[in-house]
Every structure is written in structure tokens, then in C-alpha cells.
């Protein structure tokens, strides 16, 4: 029997099907991003229109039907309210119609768990970097088993910072990779560097970098911005690794698609004799498979199904609020 | 000169050594392979210089800190202090006395009055000597700044690491010492409300 997961926290609607940890399907449909950004209601409409077709596509890819599903997971948060609601309502509808167990899943925990699963790590330190989030997490047993946030951004996520800069520089989406392309051949110009222990901040860097677009080569600015931001993340991560003595390090989330960031983090892990891992890009971008994976873990560990009435969404659902029952 | 590695952190390698015939700690900021050279050198040089300067100022205003002995581009020699980190004592389950917490609060107030934000003001950077006196160590992330925000972060880091009662003694003594304590504590509450420390239900 398999478990299905629905992800709809932002611009990606993703559906995944998992059976005993094996990924049978991971299909997605992404709202086309323009330089105007995202209007939440429009993105939610886009997801509503696509969800039925995507569900059928997921079943076709997995080669199974709804009769083979025993539980469903959906992203409870964090994310954009109207978008989250689409996955939530879809999951509740399926759960009540087909009498499935239903599990609300934390998006950040799901990103870490899928990378952990694919790398077969047992107790890694995780750097979770995406548009809205940048956190350093590891499992602790006190006062209950959960992902403790050891370090995190004081203001915006590193992905949003790269996006904002890219928009100001007139680049095209996807912004992270556009910045990386622009950075090729750039030279270093000094920029603000803000790390406090295991925490970091990006708005000062963003403001400075955008201001520097006047009077400097855009390539130099992009290069320096990327190097500075990633060095900050690496320094905070290295401090956590040294402090906690974890034997493995993984990076996950949308910004984990950056080759440069992975190369730098591998160097950090190597210098501490720790293993380094990451998931293939389709699992770093938002996806349904990670939601199905965590829902399956919740289900198999004996966690009680959520009652339909109690299943909601929480835009600011933090990873450290989740009890890890597996 | 005998030299012995005693800690390898993310920031630097720390050695016990002797210099000028004095028991000393050498903090050596080694290159980080993940960073590009220019950025790496800037960070290491700036932090070494800033650490030397703020440690020296702290000493001159009467905060118990190691003495600066020698400053090189990436290396800093300070006097060796025999003691145990407050964080280690806490891990061993030993209670930290109220008098000691008050003193730590007073020291932070003095640092802030002198324009110094410590930058990593946690129990791991408070050394307790055999007489039970606290020493403030590791000014590696410190800055000389008129920023209320950076000072509020010093309070936040300590607040996150100790229990409520210890914090009460700490902050009471801090407030009576730090001239801008009102504004700094107001900023602390604001930071705590920014959402990353509390869930907005």
C-alpha cells in the first residue's frame, strides 16, 4: 500500500507517491514566474485548475490507482496561505471520499527528510536554503525529538535575496541560476558580511549589492554577492558542525541547486571529516514526493491520523514545532 | 617554543604556547578553502585586528579579559587564563551562582558603554576561574559600533542560553550598568517579536 503527498506551499504544485520509501511518482506543475512576482490568489487559482490533471498524472506514472493508497499527506506550512489551502482542501476531499489516513506535513522537515532518505544519513546537520527560508537544523531529543534550529536568517531567506537582486539587475527567472551565470568571470569587490555565531542576515548585503550595480560591472557585483552570501552560510554551518560534532552534512531546499554552494559546503564537510550529501534537483525544488515520504513516516511510526476538521494550514509553521515520531 | 593545539573551531585554531616567557593562547585564523582568497584574507585580517582592539579596550575599562600580547595579520597572542567555560559547567549540571550572573551582566553593560558589541556573548565565551570569577573571552566577532541592534543581540544570545532566573540576575545588573539599557532592551523585545523566536499563532 502506498502514500500520496501534495505540495502547494508556493508556486509549485507537486504530487508524489511513495511506497515503503520508494518513490513511485514525483510530478509537478509550476506557476510561470514573471518579473512581476507572484500574486497569491492567482497562483492558488493556477493550482486549483491543475490539481485534478496532476493527480491523474501521478497515478499513471506510479502505475497504481487510488485503491492502492492508504494515507495522504499535504503541506501544512510554512508557505503562502491561499496556495497551501489548495493542497489542504484536495487532501481533505480525497481523505474523506476514500477513507484515507491524513497527515499534515511541515515543508522544511520534508525537504530535510527527503535529502536524508536519499543519502541514507542517520543524524545529519542540515542547511535548509530556499526562497523564504535559511536555517541550520539538527535533530535533538530534548525536550522532545525534533529538529532544533541552531542558526537561521535574521531577516530574509538567501533565495529571496538573490531574486531581489536579480530583478534589480534586470535578469530573467530562474533568478538564482541567472545570478550564477552573471557571476562567471566576475571579480571580487568588498561587500557587507553579517554572521553572528550561527545566525546571519541578508538585507544589508542585498541593499549594498543593488546600490553597487551603479558604477560597477554587474558581473563583479553578482560574483561578489554570491560569494559573500554563500561564505556566510558556510561559516555559520561550519560553526554548527564544529560545535555539534555531527558526522554528516546535507544541504536541501531550492538554493541547494546551486553548484557553487554545494562545492563550498563539500569543502566545509571535508575539513571536519564529515560526509556531505544533497538530493537531485527535482527534490530540492518543491515537490510532492517529500510530503508523501514524511506522511508515510508519520503513518508507519503509528502517529494518529489527523481528523478532517482539525486539518488546517499554518503559514508560519516552524520546523522546530514538529515532533519527530520516526 | 612549545606549542599545543587545544581547540579547532570554525573560526580559528587555538594553541597553548609561551611568548615573552608568558603562558599564552595563540589564536590563528587559518585560510578557509571554501572562500575565495580576497574575501578570506579580508575576513581573517579584519577579525584579528578587531579582536585585538576590542579586547584591549575591554581590558582598559576594567572588564576581566585576557591581555593582548602580540598582534600579527592573522594571529593574536593573549595571556592564558586557567578556568572552565560557563557552558561546560552548565552541561555538567552545576548551577551558576546569582552573583556570577550579576557580574557577567555588569561586564556586558561596561562593554556596551564603551561602544563594544561582543558579537558572540554566550556561556561558551565566559570563562570561570578557580576563584569563581568570570572572564569574558573570544572577541572574534565583536565590533565597535553605536548600533543598538548589535548590542541587543548580545543580550539575546545570552538570554537564549540560560534559564529565566539566571537571566533575571544578569539583566538586572546589566540594566543598572548600561547607560542605554532602556533602548537596547526595547530593541531586544522587538527582535524577539520578529517572528523567528515566537510562532505567531
Description:
The complex is a heterodimer of chains A (about 325) and B (about 200). Chain A has about 325 residues and is α/β, with parallel strands linked by helices. Chain A folds into two domains: about 1-110 and about 285-320, ATPase, nucleotide binding domain (Nucleotidyltransferase, domain 5); about 125-280, ATPase, nucleotide binding domain (Nucleotidyltransferase, domain 5, 2-Layer Sandwich). Chain A contains ten helices and twelve strands. Chain A has helices at about 40-60, 80-100, 105-120, 160-170, 175-185, 205-210, 220-245, 260-270, 280-285, 290-300, and strands at about 1-5, 10-20, 20-30, 70-75, 100-105, 125-130, 135-140, 145-150, 195, 200, 250, 275-280. In chain A, a hairpin with a 4-residue loop joins strand 6 (about 125-130) and strand 7 (about 135-140). The two termini of chain A are about 20 Å apart. In chain B, the strands form three sheets. A five-stranded antiparallel sheet of chain B has the order 1-2-3-5-4, with helices on one face. Chain B is of the alpha+beta class. Helix content of chain B is about 45%, strand content about 20%. The relative contact order of chain B is 0.13. The radius of gyration of chain B is 17 Å and the shape is globular. Chain B folds into two domains: about 5-80, 2-Layer Sandwich (Phosphorylase Kinase, domain 1), CATH 3.30.200.20; about 85-190, Transferase(Phosphotransferase) domain 1 (Transferase(Phosphotransferase), domain 1), CATH 1.10.510.10. In chain B, a hairpin with a 3-residue loop joins strand 4 and strand 5.
Amino acid at each position: 500500500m502506498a502514500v500520496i503527498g501534495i505540495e502547494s506551499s508556493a508556486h509549485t504544485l507537486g504530487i508524489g507517491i511513495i511506497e515503503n520509501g520508494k518513490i513511485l511518482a514525483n510530478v509537478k506543475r509550476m506557476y510561470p514566474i514573471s518579473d512581476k512576482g507572484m500574486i497569491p490568489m492567482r497562483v492558488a487559482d493556477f493550482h486549483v485548475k491543475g490539481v485534478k490533471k496532476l493527480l491523474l498524472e501521478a497515478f499513471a506514472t506510479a502505475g497504481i490507482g487510488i485503491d492502492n493508497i492508504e494515507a495522504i499527506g499535504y503541506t501544512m506550512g510554512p508557505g503562502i496561505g491561499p496556495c497551501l489551502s489548495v493542497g489542504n482542501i484536495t487532501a481533505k476531499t480525497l481523505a474523506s471520499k476514500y477513507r484515507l489516513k491524513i497527515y499534515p506535513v511541515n515543508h522544511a522537515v520534508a525537504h530535510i527528510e527527503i535529502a536524508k532518505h536519499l543519502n541514507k544519513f542517520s543524524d545529519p546537520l542540515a542547511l535548509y536554503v530556499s526562497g523564504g527560508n535559511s536555517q541550520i537544523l539538527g535533530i535533538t531529543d530534548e525536550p522532545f525529538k525534533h529538529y532544533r534550529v541552531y542558526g537561521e536568517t535574521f531577516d530574509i531567506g538567501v533565495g529571496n535575496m538573490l531574486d531581489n537582486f536579480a530583478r534589480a539587475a534586470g535578469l530573467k527567472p530562474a533568478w538564482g541560476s541567472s545570478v550564477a551565470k552573471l557571476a562567471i568571470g566576475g571579480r571580487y569587490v568588498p561587500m557587507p558580511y553579517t554572521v553572528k555565531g550561527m545566525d546571519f542576515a541578508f538585507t544589508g548585503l542585498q541593499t549594498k549589492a543593488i546600490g553597487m550595480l551603479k558604477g560597477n560591472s554587474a558581473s563583479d557585483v553578482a560574483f561578489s554577492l554570491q560569494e559573500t552570501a554563500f561564505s556566510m552560510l558556510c561559516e555559520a554551518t561550519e560553526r554548527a558542525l564544529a560545535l555539534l560534532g555531527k558526522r554528516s552534512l546535507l544541504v536541501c531546499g531550492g538554493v541547494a541547486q546551486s553548484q557553487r554552494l554545494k562545492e563550498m559546503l563539500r569543502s566545509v564537510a571535508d575539513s571536519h571529516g564529515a560526509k556531505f550529501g544533497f538530493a537531485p534537483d527535482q527534490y530540492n525544488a518543491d515537490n510532492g514526493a517529500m510530503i508523501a515520504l514524511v506522511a508515510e513516516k508519520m503513518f508507519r511510526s503509528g502517529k494518529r491520523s489527523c481528523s478532517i476538521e482539525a486539518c488546517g494550514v499554518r503559514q508560519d509553521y516552524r520546523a522546530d514545532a514538529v515532533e519527530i515520531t520516526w | 617554543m612549545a606549542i599545543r593545539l587545544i581547540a579547532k573551531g570554525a573560526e580559528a585554531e587555538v594553541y597553548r604556547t609561551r611568548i615573552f616567557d608568558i603562558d599564552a593562547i595563540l589564536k590563528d585564523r587559518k585560510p578557509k578553502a571554501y572562500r575565495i582568497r580576497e574575501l578570506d584574507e579580508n575576513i581573517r585580517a579584519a577579525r584579528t585586528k578587531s579582536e585585538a582592539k576590542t579586547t584591549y579596550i575591554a581590558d582598559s575599562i576594567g572588564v576581566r579579559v585576557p591581555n593582548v600580547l602580540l598582534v600579527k595579520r592573522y594571529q593574536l597572542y593573549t595571556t592564558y587564563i586557567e578556568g572552565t567555560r560557563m557552558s561546560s559547567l552548565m552541561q555538567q549540571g552545576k548551577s551558576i551562582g546569582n552573583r556570577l550572573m550579576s557580574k557577567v551582566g555588569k561586564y556586558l553593560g561596561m562593554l556596551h558603554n564603551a561602544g563594544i558589541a561582543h558579537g558572540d556573548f554566550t556561556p561558551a565565551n565566559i570563562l570561570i576561574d578557580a576563584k569563581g570569577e568570570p572572564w569574558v573571552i573570544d572577541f572574534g566577532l565583536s565590533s565597535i559600533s553605536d548600533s543598538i541592534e548589535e548590542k541587543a543581540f548580545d543580550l539575546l544570545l545570552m538570554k537564549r542560553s540560560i534559564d529565566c532566573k539566571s537571566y533575571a540576575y544578569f539583566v538586572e545588573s546589566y540594566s543598572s550598568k548600561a547607560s542605554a539599557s532602556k533602548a537596547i532592551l526595547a530593541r531586544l523585545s522587538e527582535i524577539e517579536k520578529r517572528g523567528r523566536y515566537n510562532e505567531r499563532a
